[in-house]
Write a structure and sequence with these properties.
Length: about 250
C-alpha cells in the first residue's frame, strides 16, 4: 500500500528508493539489490552425453526427437503468478518424470555440494537444427530435490528464426543455428543435495500457442506438420544453460 500511496497519491515513501527487494525462493527471505537484481558470478552447465550436465565442454554429440504439434507436451509451468489451479497454471509445480515423453530431452547435473543462489536472468544457448522451415525450441530449468521431486524454476521458448529472440532470419531446413534464450529474472536457492535439470522440447503450451512447424503465425495457423528436431552438444557446438549467481 505504501508504494501505491507514493505512486498514485503523491505521499512520501518511507523506504529507500532505487532498491529492489526480491524474495529468494528456497532461501525463504527477501534480498535487497541496488537498482536491479544483479549477479556477481555465473555457473555454466553444458549439455553432455547420456542426458548429463557438466561444468566442462565434453565430446561433440547430438540427440534428436520428433515434434508433433497435434500431440505436444504441456508445460507444467510457470513464469506467471497464479493460484495453482488447473485453469491458471501459475507458479512452480511438480514436473513430469524423466523419460515420460519421447518428444522431450532431459539433462541432469550431479548433486550440488553447497547451496547456490540464482539471482537474475537465466540464459540458454542451444545449437539446434530441424527439417522444418520454421519451428520452436523451449527450455525449462528445474531443481530436483533429494526426495526426487522436480520443481520448475524458469522456462522460455523461441522460434528458430529468431536467433536471439529479437533478430529475425529465414531458417534453412537442416542447417545448424545457435539460439539464445533469456528467461525472466528470478531469485532462487538451489539447496545442497539437489540437482539441476534441463528439459528441452518444442512446446510451451498453454502459455504459448502450439508452433505448427510452418511459417504461419503460431496463433493463426491453419495447418501443421511433424518436425524432426536435433540438439547438439559438446565440441564447438557447446549448448549450455548459464545460471547468474549472487
Amino acid at each position: 500500500m505504501e508504494w501505491f500511496d507514493y505512486t498514485l497519491r503523491g505521499m512520501k515513501y518511507p523506504h529507500k528508493l532505487g532498491v529492489v527487494e526480491a524474495y529468494n525462493i528456497g532461501g525463504e527471505a527477501y534480498v535487497s539489490y541496488e537498482g536491479d537484481i544483479t549477479a556477481s558470478s555465473e555457473k555454466i552447465f553444458y549439455l553432455a552425453a547420456n542426458g548429463t550436465l557438466s561444468s566442462e565442454v565434453g565430446e561433440a554429440g547430438s540427440i534428436s526427437y520428433v515434434y508433433d504439434p497435434e500431440d505436444c507436451p504441456e508445460n507444467l509451468w510457470g513464469n506467471i503468478l497464479g493460484d495453482g489451479s488447473v485453469q491458471n497454471y501459475g507458479g512452480p509445480r511438480k514436473q513430469r518424470a524423466i523419460g515420460s515423453r519421447s518428444d522431450e530431452l532431459y539433462f541432469i547435473s550431479g548433486v550440488m555440494e553447497e547451496d547456490i543462489d540464482i539471482a537474475g536472468a537465466i540464459r540458454a544457448e542451444l545449437y539446434v537444427s530441424s527439417d522444418a522451415e520454421a519451428t520452436a525450441f523451449s527450455v525449462t530449468v528445474s531443481e530436483v530435490f533429494e526426495n526426487g521431486d522436480t520443481i520448475n524454476i524458469r522456462n522460455d521458448i523461441t522460434d528458430i528464426r529468431y536467433l536471439d529472440e529479437d533478430s529475425y532470419a529465414d531458417y534453412i531446413p537442416g542447417s545448424i543455428v545457435k539460439l539464445m534464450l533469456t528467461m525472466l529474472d528470478v531469485t532462487w536457492r538451489v539447496k545442497k543435495g539437489s540437482k539441476i535439470r534441463i528439459d528441452i522440447s518444442s512446446s510451451n503450451h498453454p502459455a504459448y500457442h502450439v508452433h505448427p512447424n510452418t511459417v504461419e503465425c503460431w496463433s493463426g495457423a491453419t495447418k501443421s506438420k511433424i518436425a524432426n528436431q536435433t540438439v547438439y552438444y559438446g565440441g564447438k557446438q557447446k549448448s549450455c544453460v548459464i545460471l547468474p549467481m549472487r
